[in-house]
Amino acid sequence: MNKWQIELVKVAGDMVASKERVKKRILQQQKVKPKKPIRFALLTAIVTLCLAGFVLVQLLNKETQQSAQMFNETQLEHFENVTHFMWGEQDDEFNKSEAFNRYEQLVAYYYYAKSLGMTTSKAELEAEKKERYDELVLLQQSTPYAELFQEQGLDQYFKMYIEPMLPMYAARKKLNTLYDEKYPTFSMSAHQIAANDALRYFQAHFAEQATAFQKEMGIRNYSNSRGLIYVGTAIKIESNAFLFVEGAIPEDLEKLSEAQIVKQYDNATWYPILDDFPVKRGDYISLESSGSETHEENGVATTYGLLNNIEVIEYTEPPVTTKLDIQNEQEVIQFFQLTDWQTPDNHDKMKEPPKYSFMLEGVRVDVWISYGHSLYLHKVDAGTIHLDQERSEKLKEILGIKES
Fold first, then answer.
1. How many CA atoms lie within 13 A of 236 on its CB side?
2. Residue 135 φ/ψ, nearest 5 degrees
3. Rounded to whole angstroms, how far apart are CA atoms 126 and 384?
């Protein structure tokens, strides 16, 4: 990715690529205004200074015309330009929808930061203005933007499209800084956590306004669900994060150490503890995650995930593991004498709680029902084994397992 593409991502945020095509959008040529008579020059200068002062006051109060209206067709057009330049020609429906998503995210930063009591100083606003302008100067090196600015002019484009959104860009920067401090171990994911929190807050409080604007602009309202659902247990809690193990059940914490649980299920991910979704150790959880990244340090890999939503599942009558009371332990031991436990290549059968569990010589053994009612077993600190049909039926008989 070259420099102007990097700056384009900073302007609009990350976008999801699409194979669809959209029609090329072209800005209307800026109309040339006639010169005013010389006798009005002084009056014009005075009025201009007054207007400039008024605009600056509005920016410092964080209440520009843009933010007061919440959404504006002009700024949406800017994000349509960015979407088109990022992904090429796609259909108009996709282009508008993707542009609105980027626009809504930026507006969400502003209102979420405002709800947290964040303010923007004159110096911060001026710094943001310079940074945004410098971005456009760099983007001008790319052919699409060079053509755009040649037609309309960089200064005029900045004034019309970018300047009204300066408080929003400033809010994004302040939130990212706050979340870097709040989630130091999440690296760049901290910024995405901030984006998710801002969007969740905005959609909870301003969904009606967003929907009305989409309807007015003829934008299709796609589902906001952006992640995959996982079920498991929170096995460890730190100040602003929890360690989630997919497939693990709360009962695992009674018999296994945290390290043993992580080793057994091999699906451990750190997620942020959200302010409106508190999590306790041992909670059985269903969560929606939009992605993850893995960091490796000193040979140890740690995975950090992005959390969209979370729900604690009541665990009063778990439809999961049946504990077997083994009365014929020696017979079971003899059965496993010829078993070659293996380090598993994948844990597809371990992404859900085991069907049965029993203790053998003080060590826990979990049992899953696999294809054709064969058995898949995991023995703590030993490994796994997938029994063939004949041995599976034999072990069921020894353990007293009767399938309905």
1. 13
2. -60, -45
3. 61
For the CA atoms of 134, 198, 57, 34, the dihedral, rounded to the nearest 10 degrees, stands at 50
Instruction: Kindly report the number of other CB atoms within 10 A of residue 159's CB atom.
Output: 12
Tokens of 139: 């983007």
Give the closest residue to 282 by CA, choosing from 229, 232, 322, 320: 232
Between CA 176 and CA 187, with CA 181 as vertex, the angle to 5 degrees is 70
Residues in the chain: 404
Q: Which residues pair with 291 in a beta bridge?
A: 306
Q: How many CB atoms neighbour CB 19 within 10 A? A: 7
Contacts of 107 (CB under 8 A, 6+ apart): 67, 70, 71, 168, 202
User: Order of strands, edge to edge, in the sheet holding 356-360?
Assistant: 322-323, 356-360, 363-369, 375-379, 383-386
Residue 64: HSE in the Cβ half-sphere, 13 Å Cα cutoff: 26
Q: Burial of 403 by CB count in 10 Å (0-12 exposed, 13-18 middle, 19+ buried)? A: exposed
Q: Are 313 and 231 in contact (CB under 8 A)?
A: yes
Per-residue pLDDT at 244 exceeds 70: yes
| pLDDT category of residue 274 using cuts at 50, 70 and 90 | confident
Across the chain, mean pLDDT equals 79
Closest C-alpha to 312, from 268, 339, 279, 354: 279
**Predicted confidence band at 320 (pLDDT cuts at 50, 70, 90)?**
low
Under 8 Å between Cβ of 398 and 335: yes
Chain segment 214-236, per-residue pLDDT in tens: 999 999 876 554 667 788 899 99
